[in-house]
Amino acid sequence: MSVLYRLLRARRLVKNGHSFYVADVPKVTEEHRLARRAQIVAAARTCVIEEGFHKTTMADVIRESGLSAGAVYGYFKSKEEIVAAIAEDALSTIDELFQKILATEQAVTPLMALEAAINHVVAVAERPGGDVTRVAIQAWAEALRNPAIMATACDKYTVLRGNFEAVARRAQADGTVDPDVAPEYIAQVLLALIPGFVLQRLIIGDVTPSTYLAGARALFRS
Amino acid sequence: MSVLYRLLRARRLVKNGHSFYVADVPKVTEEHRLARRAQIVAAARTCVIEEGFHKTTMADVIRESGLSAGAVYGYFKSKEEIVAAIAEDALSTIDELFQKILATEQAVTPLMALEAAINHVVAVAERPGGDVTRVAIQAWAEALRNPAIMATACDKYTVLRGNFEAVARRAQADGTVDPDVAPEYIAQVLLALIPGFVLQRLIIGDVTPSTYLAGARALFRS
């Protein structure tokens, strides 16, 4: 009985006119699932960059992905869920980045964290498949009128700011930053420098990590 | 002849069956013109805040303003022109602010300029008639796909950044900032702190001028 149960879980029990038999079904591996998800997220990113978040529909994403509607809805129920996934993918590697910064033996400074974050943002923005910072700017606008997007944006930026707060605490412990200022206030300023860079890069267009970090080095104590 | 010419410019020369006569026409004063313009800009701000830039149409603005279509089109030919006017109005007082900062006898510091700018942004955002920073965020998103909005945004932010650059030059002359760093790079970082504040204020919601400036004082040299 337990053998049949295991077979039922792994395969499909088929009944024809005469008897039961066990048929092989395509095995949906975790790898396959992640590849499909990535394919849908990439399609949505393309649509949002080309048409804008507002004009993009689930039908556009389905067409662009080359998958069936059923397949796409199997992963994401709405545009909002896909935008959350785009943000998730774009920000997922930044945690590792901060872990690396905080693991160093040297004194940790806000400038080190800012430099790593800005270089990371540009590397992610320049990946093939479209500049994800263009999606971020649209998500900010959409957040103002869409509570689901607002909740996602608030979560993601709170996590990112928490990383800057950890840097501020560490810098205060190392003696490179005034220990009497709340680290969350310092994190507010450090976080602000990311969208401020992203906007100038896309709207004025003349800012690079090298010019921006030179400016920050002139202004910052450490 | 020159008297007639002056009458023609000021009034309307009417011809009936028998003779010419000069009729009085409603005198559109500059004051009246500015009040009408402000009425349209306020209506557009309300629409964009409530419906989003994308969904707002000229018909919505006309309805919200209570004026005729002819009256509205007499001032603005498109949504893009109205958004430019909203930006113009929101940023027009900031030049005076920077002139005041640069006129001081004291040493000018980046922190002084940042403090004044952040307090100004919050004061403007809290004016009755709707938070204009909500329009700004939508204009950033729209700029990515609308060249007219992009050109306006680029112009306005370049002017604002020029003010921060003037502060940086003055601070370098006063000896409060390293004179060897290009003032335009310093201005890139100072400008970034404005949208970075605006976004956190609207999306995370816990940032105030007082927390933000405390954070900046901990990070900045001067």
Q: What is the domain tally of chain A?
A: 2
Q: If classified by CATH, what would the architecture of the largest domain in chain A be?
A: Orthogonal Bundle
Oligomer: homodimer
Biggest chain pair interface: A-B, 56 and 55 residues
Short précis:
By secondary structure, chain A is mostly helical. Helix content of chain A is 72%, strand content 4%.
Descriptive notes:
The structure is a homodimer of 222-residue chains. By secondary structure, the first copy, chain A, is mainly alpha-helical. Chain A has two domains: 1-77, Orthogonal Bundle (Arc Repressor Mutant, subunit A), CATH 1.10.10.60; 79-221, Tetracycline Repressor, domain 2 (Orthogonal Bundle). The first copy, chain A, has helices at 2-10, 30-51, 58-65, 69-75, 79-103, 110-125, 132-143, 147-174, 183-203, 209-219; strands at 12-15, 20-23. In chain A, helix 5 crosses helix 6 (110-125). The longest helix of chain A is centred in the C-terminal third of the chain and has 28 residues, at 147-174. The radius of gyration of chain A is 23 Å and the shape is elongated. At the A-B interface, helix 7, helix 8, helix 9 and helix 10 of A face helix 7, helix 8, helix 9 and helix 10 of B.
